Amino acid sequence: MQKFPMTAEGLARLEEELKLLKGEERPAVIRAIAEARAHGDLSENAEYHAAREKQSFIEGRIAELETIVPAAEVIDVSKLSGDQVKFGARVTVVDEETEEEKTYRIVGQYEADMKNNSISISSPLAKALIGKKVGDSVEVPAPGGARAYEITAVAFR
């Protein structure tokens, strides 16, 4: 079985999502399907088709999470330290062209969330940063051309 690196917080979020899907979402969509069936002709019943589509999505996500959660290899970031970028690090970089500063956390592929500045360890930026130290510059391939970043801070918390 392939193992997936993950933070404890990321695993907890996935376990909570799985619990919610199995305990609340799945029963609710089953009730919605039964209610829509009671309305008669299923061929022209939009509520029935929408509920079936939602059920399909929920069942697919449950199956996906039931594969990911047992295969998670939790890495305790609080026990990590050093000045080199590795899994779990919060890395502050400055775009050498725009001078814009951003802080990213390097996490597992199933917990990455750009809205929270969490990037997957398999992303081009994370791959470029891994093994580097404060003061190092990295070049990252991007659709609009390569971008250069300077690492200004590395922290584990």
UniProtKB/TrEMBL annotation:
This protein's gene is called greA
- Name under which the protein is recorded: Transcription elongation factor GreA
Sorted alphabetically, the keyword list is: DNA-binding, Elongation factor, Protein biosynthesis, Transcription, Transcription regulation
UniProt xrefs under InterPro entries: GreA/GreB_C_sf, TF_GreA/GreB_CS, Tscrpt_elong_fac_GreA, Tscrpt_elong_fac_GreA/B, Tscrpt_elong_fac_GreA/B_C, Tscrpt_elong_fac_GreA/B_fam, Tscrpt_elong_fac_GreA/B_N, Tscrpt_elong_fac_GreA/B_N_sf
Transcription elongation factor GreA/GreB C-terminal domain sequence ranges: 82-155
Which GO BP terms, alphabetically? DNA-templated transcription elongation; regulation of DNA-templated transcription elongation
Free-text function comment from the UniProt entry: Necessary for efficient RNA polymerase transcription elongation past template-encoded arresting sites. The arresting sites in DNA have the property of trapping a certain fraction of elongating RNA polymerases that pass through, resulting in locked ternary complexes. Cleavage of the nascent transcript by cleavage factors such as GreA or GreB allows the resumption of elongation from the new 3'terminus. GreA releases sequences of 2 to 3 nucleotides.
* GO MF terms held by the record: DNA binding; RNA polymerase binding; translation elongation factor activity
